[in-house]
Design a protein that fits this description.
Elements: H1 12-16, E1 19-22, H2 24-32, E2 38-43, H3 48-55, E3 62-63, H4 66-72, E4 82-86, E5 103-108, H5 114-126, E6 131-135, H6 144-150, E7 159-162, H7 165-174, E8 178-182, E9 198-203, H8 212-216, E10 220-222, H9 235-252
Parallel strand pairs: 2-3, 5-6, 5-9, 6-7, 8-9, 8-10
Antiparallel strand pairs: 1-4, 2-4
Helix pairs in contact: 5-6, 5-9
Length: 253
């Protein structure tokens, strides 16, 4: 088990950057991630046996009551009797995405709800995506709510913030990726479309979909074949369906 980093040498800046992660799966994944620096681990007596069994050892921890946890965490946090105080993960860049013949990346155009981003990360990890990209502006930080919704996926694949979405798409296209935008008005469904082996799945924001410039930079647009009785799906649900379809075809090719 990793050693904790909470000591007298920790500088003021690192303390200011500390974040609380909570929820059993999110915290266990953080404890298993060698890149994650844990400063404190707080566990209730009820949760400690399950944690010890999951990790095959009893980690360095502080025993606390549920009321004490709730005072430290945001209101209504579903903590499941466990939380850790940690440093943010090291920043990743698109250059860190490995070069492969077959690759799937998710790019989110100003998706702002941390629960949606967390759910998308969980789906992306489940279907072997190589990274999730978000805009630096109007996107939430990778803190407790996002990590809880990701259910451990935040530790499994890179969440990369980009400044300029159009430039990022262009850079990925130069690396052989095709940008596939999701839009309910597209002429073809995803299943009707022949797909390349290197794909950037581009998803729009919860309320407005893809911005005009983002759509213009996509190589082609597709839609899901949903009933006319429903206008659209939640972005995380739509992304999960698209990821399943794409990953199945990439694994068969």
């Amino acid at each position: 088990m990793k050693k904790f980093t909470n000591d007298s040498k920790q500088n003021k800046k690192s303390k200011e950057n500390e974040i609380w992660l909570y929820g059993f799966h999110a915290v266990v994944a953080a404890l298993k991630n060698p890149e994650r620096k844990i400063n404190r681990l707080l566990v209730t007596r009820e949760t400690l046996p399950e944690l010890t069994l999951t990790l095959n050892e009893e980690p360095v921890h502080e025993i606390v009551g549920r009321a004490e946890l709730e005072q430290l965490l945001p209101k209504n946090s579903v903590h499941q009797g466990i939380a850790c105080l940690t440093q943010p993960l090291p920043e990743k860049f698109i250059e860190d995405i490995p070069e492969k013949d077959s690759s799937l990346i998710v790019l989110l155009d100003q998706v702002s709800d941390p629960h949606n981003i967390g759910a998308i990360m969980r789906s992306a990890a489940a279907f072997n995506a190589d990274a999730v990209l978000i805009t630096e502006k109007n996107a939430p930080e990778a803190t407790g709510a996002l990590a809880k919704s990701a259910s451990g996926a935040l530790e499994l694949l890179p969440l990369i913030s980009v400044v300029n979405l159009a430039r990022t798409m262009n850079d990925l296209q130069k690396r052989g990726y095709w940008c596939v935008g999701m839009d309910g008005t597209a002429p073809k469904t995803l299943k009707e479309t022949d797909l390349p082996k290197k794909i950037v799945l581009v998803m729009g924001s919860e309320g407005y979909g893809l911005r005009r410039l983002t759509a213009e930079n996509c190589d082609f647009m597709v839609k899901l074949p949903i009933s006319s009785q429903v206008e659209s799906l939640n972005v995380s649900n739509a992304c999960a369906i698209a990821l399943y379809d794409i990953s199945c075809r990439l694994s068969e090719s």
